[in-house]
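To the wet lab folks,

You asked to see what we're planning to order before we commit. Fair enough. Below is the target structure as tokens, and below that is the sequence we designed to fit it. If anything looks off to you, flag it before the synthesis order goes out.
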């Protein structure tokens, strides 16, 4: 929250008597006040200061009030700062240009203290609410995936949930080996810190390679990749996850960083799951189940991929695969052909 009530109010007027009167009113209401006599001075001060609001005379020597408003509003730090135009009754016709310059309101001279107090306070409260909601939104965005954010925005705009859709996508699961056993030997607070740090790096890599995290799965993640070269990007991401795990394996808790990965590609249904009171926008289907099972099958510090992933990436010089294996996978009637992916060593 920006706490605009605790930031100074800037008064811009070339008449000293007017500045003194407004200052008196504002200081009586508990505001800290800055005042300048020109648009040029106001622009320079606005560049350097955080302001709770601006009271701007329409007629100023040099740069007038409308242009001053336009230039201050263009500053990123003042995109929401309340700007109130102060104008004489015979200048009302110019207000359309002032609103085009993105002022928020106007006050007519002679200034009435009650009107000034009410309008300034109202605009500051609305701006405070905007920043508060913006902070909440940013916080929520840290907890939900970009795809879920899009669905929420769509629902907010239309009131309708999108129907489930079938898509071609690539699914990557990661899992820390021996985590349950390890949790019996490390204090919960330390374990939580180590796990959070390690998963944070995995998440950063997923987004670096153009995917997104669908959910955390306790001691691992489920990530999705869509679009062009999805299989290549998922594999590169998994290789970097393993490389990072290798780079930090040391000390008594090295087991915490023994990661296994499973990757598959295919059709899956994307949509809302759950009740109207509590929904999860997620992905279901055989592709997801297979990736999870392959992750469970992977040895520590290894990546197991499906036949579809192998077919999409076998010609890439960055990848090296083991011989094909046929393994029994829980929930699948027939043996599944899989491959282990390792970094390609290039002399």
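Sequence we intend to order:
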């Amino acid at each position: 929250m920006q706490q605009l009530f605790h930031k100074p109010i800037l008064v811009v007027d070339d008449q000293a008597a007017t500045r003194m009167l407004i200052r008196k009113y504002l200081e009586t209401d508990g505001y800290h006040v800055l005042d300048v006599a020109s648009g040029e001075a106001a622009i320079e001060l606005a560049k350097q200061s955080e302001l709770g609001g601006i009271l701007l005379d329409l007629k100023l020597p040099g740069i007038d009030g409308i242009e001053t408003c336009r230039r201050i509003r263009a500053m990123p730090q003042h995109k929401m700062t309340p700007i109130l135009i102060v104008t004489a009754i015979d200048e009302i016709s110019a207000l359309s240009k002032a609103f085009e310059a993105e002022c928020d309101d106007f006050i007519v001279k002679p200034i009435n203290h009650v009107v000034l107090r009410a309008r300034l306070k109202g605009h500051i409260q609305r701006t405070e609410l905007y920043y508060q909601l913006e902070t909440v939104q940013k916080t929520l965005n840290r907890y939900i995936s970009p795809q879920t954010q899009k669905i929420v925005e769509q629902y907010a705009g239309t009131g309708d949930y999108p129907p489930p859709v079938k898509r071609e996508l690539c699914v990557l699961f990661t899992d820390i080996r021996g985590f349950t056993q390890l949790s019996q030997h490390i204090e919960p607070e330390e374990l939580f810190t180590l796990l959070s740090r390690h998963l944070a790096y995995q998440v950063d890599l997923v987004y670096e390679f153009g995917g997104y995290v669908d959910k955390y799965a306790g001691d691992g993640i489920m990530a999705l990749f869509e679009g062009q070269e999805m299989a290549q990007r998922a594999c590169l991401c998994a290789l970097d996850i393993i490389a990072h795990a290798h780079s930090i394996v040391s000390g008594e808790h090295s087991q915490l960083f023994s990661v296994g990965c499973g990757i598959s590609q295919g059709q899956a249904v994307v949509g809302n799951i759950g009740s109207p009171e509590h929904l999860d926008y997620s992905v279901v289907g055989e592709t997801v189940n297979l990736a999870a099972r392959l992750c469970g099958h992977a040895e520590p510090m290894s990546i197991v991929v499906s036949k579809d992933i192998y077919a999409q990436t076998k010609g890439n010089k960055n990848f090296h695969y083991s011989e094909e294996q046929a393994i029994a996978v829980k929930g699948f009637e027939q043996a599944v052909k899989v491959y282990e992916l390792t970094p390609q060593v290039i002399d």
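Structural context that might help your review: The two ends are 55 Å apart (CA to CA). The domain at 159-343 is CATH 3.30.70.1230 (Alpha-Beta Plaits).

Thanks,
Computational group
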